[in-house]
Amino acid sequence: MILKVAFCLGTIVGGLFAGRTVQAQVPNDTLSHYELGEIVVGPQGSSTEASSVSTTQRVRLADIAQTDVASIDYVLRLVPSAHLQTNSRGESLIYLRGSGERQVSIFFDGALLNVPWDNRIDLSLIPSEVVGEISIAKGVPSVLYGANVLGGAINLTSRQLSNQGTYTQLSGITGSYGSQQARLTWLRRTERFQSTVFAGLSDQNGIGVPDEADLPYSQHSDVRTNTDRRMQSVFGQVAYNVGGGGSIGISLLSLGGKKGVAPEGHLNPEESRVRFWRYPEWETNMAIVSGQLRVRNGTLRGAAWVSRFGQTIAQYSNASYREQLSIQIDQDDTYGLRLAYLRDFSGNGVLRTALNWLSSSHEQQDLSMGESPLLRLFSQRVLSNGIEYTKTGRVNVTVGASMDVFATPKTGDKPGRGPQTGMGVTLGLSHDITPDLTIRGVAGRKVRFPTMRELFGEALGRFLVNPDLVPESSLLTEVAVRIEHGETAAEAIFFFNRTHDTIGQRMVLLEGEMRPRRQRVNLDGSRVLGLETTLVSRIVPSVLASCSMTIMRARAITTNGTEPLVEKPSGVGGCRISYRSAGGFSVALEEQFTGKAHGLSQDNAFVPLERSGVTNIRLAWLLLYKQYSAEIFARGNNITDAVTLPQLGLPGPGRALHGGVQVTF
What is the dihedral of CA 106, 110, 113, 119, to 10 degrees? Predict the structure, then answer.
């Protein structure tokens, strides 16, 4: 575990719409998210924290708990316009409104979780139980987030008690294909201190394959080839209230595991470069110091962190995973700092300024069997400064600007390159026409620098490098209408994103080789036009409905016109209807929809990925006795065994059943 002490806290803007809100599992539940790790700007904030003009949505603790999953990736499917998929590296990634996975930054208690080498993190290895709330910023994310949030920002906040007392929770889950989970959460709060301890262990032999899935290669049973996984996680946190609105906290997070990677089942290994990979080691350790302090009629908040990420990739010759060809050993050390100052000018306006700094190194060792090891060292620096001002009144007006700088001092065995810069701007308006009707609009420009992996990564011979990539830049716009009436809230958001120099891929067959390689290139650009709608309504006191649907048209711009953006569906959506009786029985029915998309074949041709729908059901019985509670539950995921195909040759899981018990005292 890496330890480092420094001052302060991370950031997030918004709160205009709670994307998924249901009652807590236990009546009078004292659990709430831990706000030390984020700056909440919106209905929960003070006048100093004026509402954002961009979209911010939330997934609450009760919704997270009722997914009954070990990792956060499944939970993020609850986010409107989110598209989750597992790529050919076995990484579970999120896309918001047709964005790229490297355009979305994910934070935990204000600290960046993304591994800077590739600006993403495998969501399947982040435990869900440690998260108390999820906040998602879309549209034009605030300058408080720093660089590389062109596609949005997601902030995970850890669990804490809102009232004084002690809370302990034990849970155990078992299910299909040898899946098992065991989790312990302990929370305590006194007048001055808050503390959290979490430990979890999960294991699975694999995931199921839908009966109708077309996998002609590398698949020989009803368990998806090479999809076993084991993960363990530990989290600890202590926070101290120093008085006068000030606080400071220290968090330690340790995640580890090992897993296999499903091979692309549509490719003939004799003709194509198929990843026969395993991760025998995967580990990330992080220490975060966060806090806030009143300074000259304003609030200074921030987070400082240090993290170490390490993984080993073993490549095999075929689907038997007996003959090992090579090993890649990665180690990433990252130091980061985020500071934000917010000041209210007596109701006339709100000023926000931010400084974000990150330094990261990537050490990579490639070991081919029978050859000498090759050790390479890469490093990068990212600096971002930003300022925003909101003039409050009958119409709130927000203006902002930021400057981002990206440098790569060390480039391994590749040629050096100079620093890159990017500028961001924001202009937004919001107006409450009536207490129940709000309109808002925002436009802005953001940039996303190419990652070191995109510039220099070869992925054990699968990719050709391209160190001449330039940053992506986007014009981001959205217009939203929100209506509330009683216990019903609805929102419609029209958005249009125009990106220049989009980083995509092409297939290249080198002279003398039989199998093509991939290479990242800057495309002419892309555009995404869409409509995101969300509805939450308590139909009767015991029934809650929460639905969202996003339709999109995502196109790449070429010299010959336009063509589909690879693996970007025409729509994503979901609906959840839950019922809870007075006697503690509850049932929830979930439906998830993914529209038609296109994959890219080995000869650079587009292949349709058909639309799909998945149905899930959850049954539970909650028993209460004094300060004790126990919930017995069962869940069926994809109960119709539908085929989902987010990527060629890598279908989603088939039918799976789980059950368990959760005890609280």
Answer: 60
CA–CA separation, 58 and 55 (whole Å): 10
Contact 498, 366 (CB under 8 A): no
Q: Show the tokens assigned to 218.
A: 């590398």
Rounded to 5°, the CA angle 56-402-143 comes to 20
Q: And the tokens for 119?
A: 């600006």
pLDDT at position 60 over 90:
no
Read off the tokens for 195: 């503390």
Between CA 79 and CA 94 the distance in angstroms is 10
Residue 586 contacts by C-beta under 8 Å, 6 or more apart in sequence? 578, 579, 580, 618, 619, 620, 621, 622
Residue written as tokens 């890496």? 2
pTM of the predicted model as reported, rounded to 2 decimal places:
0.88
CA–CA separation, 198 vs 313, rounded Å?
Answer: 28
Q: Give the separation between CA 228 and CA 277, rounded to whole angstroms.
A: 12
What pLDDT was estimated at residue 607? 94
- Banded pLDDT at 510 (limits 50, 70, 90): confident
Asked if residue 318 has pLDDT above 90, the reply is yes
> How many CA atoms are closer than 13 Å to the CA of 392, on its beta-carbon side?
15
Label residue 25 by pLDDT band (50, 70, 90): very low
In which order are the strands placed within the sheet that holds 463-464?
463-464, 517-522, 503-508
> What pLDDT does residue 508 have?
79
Residue 13 above 50 pLDDT?
no
Using 50, 70 and 90 to split pLDDT, how confident is the model at 369?
A: low
Q: ∠ at Cα 357 (353, 359), nearest 5°?
A: 175
Q: What is the DSSP string of 448-504?
A: EPPPHHHHH--TTTTEE--TT---EEEEEEEEEEEEEETTEEEEEEEEEEEEES-EE
User: Residue 417: pLDDT above 60?
Assistant: yes
Alpha carbon separation from 173 to 20, 179, 224, 522, 659 (Å, rounded): 24, 8, 21, 46, 6
Strand blocks (E) in 42-140: 56-59, 82-86, 92-96, 104-108, 111-112, 131-137
> What tokens appear for 124 in the block?
């399947």
Residue 453 · residue 469 · CB < 8 Å: no
- Mind listing the pLDDT tens digit for each residue in 392-406? 888 999 999 999 999
Segment 577-630, tens digit of pLDDT? 999 999 999 999 999 999 999 998 888 789 999 999 999 999 999 999 888 999
Closest Cα partner for 388 from 48, 45, 38, 18?
48
Q: How far apart are the C-alpha atoms of 366 and 145, rounded to whole Å? A: 34
CA nearest to 595, candidates 534, 554, 649, 656: 554
In this predicted structure, the answer to whether residue 40 has a pLDDT above a threshold of 70 is no
The mean-pLDDT minimum among 38-47, 140-149, 176-185, 513-522 falls in 38-47
Cβ atoms within 10 Å, residue 461: 14
25 DSSP 8-state letter: S
pLDDT(21) > 80: no
Helix (H, G, I), strand (E, B), or coil: what is residue 101?
Answer: helix
**Which residues in 151-186 are b (16+ Cβ under 10 Å) and which e?**
bbbbbbbbbbbeeeeebebebebebbbebbbbbebe
In angstroms, the CA 415 to CA 164 distance is: 57
Q: How far apart (Å, rounded) are the C-alpha atoms in residues 64 and 85?
A: 19
**DSSP code of residue 115:** B
Mean pLDDT of 222-235: 95
Burial class (CB in 10 A: 0-12, 13-18, 19+), 16: buried
Mapping DSSP to helix (H, G, I), strand (E, B) and coil, where does residue 272 land? coil
